[in-house]
Amino acid sequence: MILTKSSQRRLAYDARNAQQNAESLSQLITSKVVAQDSYQQANTVLWYLHCRSEVWTYQTVIAELQKQQKTIIIPYCTKDLQGNNQLGLWHLEEISELSAGTWGILEPPRERWGESGKEVSPEQIDVVIVPGVAFDRQGGRLGNGAGYYDRLFASLTAQCTLLGIAFDSQIHTQIIMQQYDVYMQCVITESRIYQARA
Length: 198
Prior knowledge:
By secondary structure, the protein is of the alpha/beta class. The protein is 24% helix and 23% strand.
């Protein structure tokens, strides 16, 4: 059977939705993330806050805030001046700053979007923890298809490290990659760390 991105995405959603022990496996995955040299050396890190069947990140973000050793950035879904999907980048200092927004994901209140001193530019980020619907062993990534992360990747510095995180069930033999798609430097699951081709 010849797969398209859409069919790969559907199969990957089914696998991710069926994942057992998601909370405990997520804790294992995120503990591997914070042990990576690139993470340890970073000053500013972007963590997503999970929704639905993604690898859970909420508890790890809270723990990192409590350590006060890194600047923690979280993304939220917004639009640029041309109306294209874009991730806002918020410097998170207290989890209480956030409320449920698009798709139930925690984000800063809409009236604070763009607030001086809280918004950061992509060039300031050292490491991005990247969600995905599926990944392959070479670092190929399949997202939700809305392009939010694709536009972010295009704005990061060449020194920024992209760490994809996923359950083993989300790893495919080969993700269909197009010219504008970006490979991860590393993909971390509960059982493996794939040093990728980025």
